[in-house]
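Model it.
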Amino acid sequence: FAASRSSGGVDTDGYETFDLFASYEPPTGPFAGARFSAGIDNILDENYNIHPNALNQPGRTFKFAGAFKF
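Modeled.
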């Protein structure tokens, strides 16, 4: 059914990306109440486009964050 319908969009190749994310919240000590996070998006640095705009997406991205509750 879907193959017989035209959406007027641009055909793009399929893709897979792999992401990694971790966080840590120390239970005691001077950093109790803090949360540290790190992540990597698109670990394999895959070139890909998303629908419907077919624009190239960013490559590998590193993220680091810290938060403190008080």
